[in-house]
Amino acid sequence: MKKWLILSTLCAVLLIGGCxxxxxxxxxxxxxxxxxxxxxxxxxxxxxxxxxxxxxxxxLAVEHEFTKSFIVETDVEPGFHQMRGELNGFxxxxxxxxxxxxxxxxxxxxxxxxxxxxxxxxxxxxxYHVKLMYYQKYPEEVKQNYLNVFKDEVGFDGDYKYVEAxxxxxxxxxxxxxxxxxxVLKYFGYLFLKDQxxxxxxxFMAMCQGKEECDISFEEEAEMAEKLMYSIxxxxx
Length: 237
Known about the structure:
By secondary structure, this protein is of the alpha+beta class. Helix content is 20%, strand content 35%. It starts with a helix and ends with a strand. It comes from Shouchella xiaoxiensis.
């Protein structure tokens, strides 16, 4: 699951050049996904390989050079900041220890923005990945096609739940899985701002961190997934 997640994540944002990076590039990308990319002026070495971001002593969002450029307001509520996409199309909450690796952000044709951030709960040995793709414009007539393709991408063959909130039409669901380290929760939703035809597919994954098993409460993790999803605002332009 971990290797699959890294590779699928890299493929999602390498919009140009396909999905076969050279060995050195792939290693660099994987290190940044796992929070191992260290600037030359860092004074403290990261401990452990491939164990995610440390939310107690590692880099915080406001301290990470790339991530902080997305922060528009700090401490909007305990443990969370407000972030905005580079295309100014959406805002949402990001945990204070959330990190956006520069390699996992891309803009295509000034109209589509892909952004992935990761955060963790070190004390409970849990790791989280959040992926969004902002579409500045989508054709209303292919809306159902977007939803069908999205289900295929996340590996779900059931029916969406539907809600309306924050001037958005939201189609969402979740499922439980397991990898060699323990349980995994995948939560996903497709959000549409109908009047302006903006859209954003949202994916949230909670899993055990590193090589240690952990206990994951699907109910608690779903609450976090929904909190982040419902914090999304698609902005008028």
